[in-house]
Design a protein that fits this description.
Blueprint (H helix, E strand, L loop, with lengths): L4 H22 L6 H23 L4 H15 L1
Helix pairs in contact: 1-2
């Protein structure tokens, strides 16, 4: 089953929200070794979700190239 871009973007946003929440909550208990490990893992997962979310959008240069290609096909 293939997921469209909008569903992937929503999944990435939900993942970012959840991992950021865990990172914030565990930051209050950094003296506890389990909380410290969870904090590091959640922070790393947040970075992964943010990177995934970024790659789901086309860059401005790709959009500009596509618009030029469309104009050339029309002429």
């Amino acid at each position: 089953m293939k997921f469209d871009k909008e569903l992937q973007r929503e999944a990435a946003k939900i993942g970012m929200t959840a991992t950021l929440g865990v990172t914030v909550v565990t930051s209050l208990f950094m003296k506890n070794s389990a909380a410290k490990k969870a904090h590091i893992i959640a922070g790393s997962a947040f970075c992964g979700f943010a990177l995934w979310h970024t790659f789901l959008y086309d860059s401005k240069s790709k959009k500009a190239i596509k618009s030029v290609e469309v104009e050339n096909k029309e002429n």
